[in-house]
Amino acid sequence: MPTIEPNVPTAQPRVPTRKPRARIAAIGAAFALAAATPVAAYAALEDPPAAASGAVDRGKPYVETRLFFGTERPDGGPPVTEKQFLAFVDRQITPRFPAGLTIHDGRGQWRDQHGTIERERSYEVILLYPTSEAPTQDPRIERIRTAYERQYAQESVARADTPARVDF
Asked: Hey, which residues does 164 pair with through a beta bridge?
């Protein structure tokens, strides 16, 4: 008995959207941007986003820095407690940012250096400071990150900087 082959449409060959040279140039540009000096990074923060259509242009140019602190220890030690974290804030962050900050409780996940997805309780600290102070604040923020990583055996404290317009 002859076999009947089903009429299955064949996939169309994929047409590359970029030529290899264009792809290499795009990757090279990405590396060049990533290697930009802090001065260039701060210059980008000096132009806060334009106000939405019809919105009032209010406030002054600021930087919003968000720091993400995990509480699980990769070395297997006990998690960082809320009391320990708040003591860290009192000793390390408040003296460097006495004008104020915001803390959010959270749940986070990330892939550790061994490729394992780690889920943990976390804290997000939000810092606001004038754009003109960014070069001065950067080393202070980096000292906070380093202190937490060392004190609580963390692989990393994530940091996100964005331009903002702030009015108090």
From this structure: 62
Cα–Cα dist 110/120, whole Å: 9
The tokens describing 162, both together, are 């964005």
Query: How many other β-carbons are positioned within 10 Å of the β-carbon of residue 23?
Result: 12
Residue listed under structure tokens 């030690």: 77
Task: Please tell me the pTM assigned to this model.
Answer: 0.68
Comparing CA positions, the residue from 96, 151, 84 lying closest to residue 121 is 84
Cα separations in angstroms, 133 against 92, 124, 130, 138: 19, 21, 5, 9
Largest CA distance in the chain: 86
The two three-digit tokens of residue 22, written as one number: 């264009």
Name the region of 54 (left: φ>0; alpha: ψ -120 to 50; beta: rest).
Answer: left
Tokens of 10: 């064949």
Query: How is residue 33 written in tokens?
Result: 């941007």
Please provide the size of the chain in residues: 168
Report pLDDT digits (tens) over 80-125: 999 999 999 999 999 999 999 999 999 999 888 888 898 999 999 9
Q: Which residue(s) pair with 159 in the sheet? A: 67
